[in-house]
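Entry: TM0996/MTH895 family glutaredoxin-like protein
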Amino acid sequence: MSKVIKILGTGCPKCKTMTSLVTEVVNENNIDASIEKVEDIMEIMTYNVMSTPALVVDDVITIKGRIPSKNEILALLN
């Protein structure tokens, strides 16, 4: 079953870095996942996240307010 990954952030440099890292991990490990960038502040607020970037995997907020390592992202996706 494909994972649904959402990266919540308004387009700041940290958000872009997280997007790049998540994309690299998914591609390097052949993970079946769709990556969606959520930049709309009202939609981000529905997740009750006050600090971005945030990583949401299958509607569960896994990381917020910091950039994870590639190993941490891989662990969350496996």
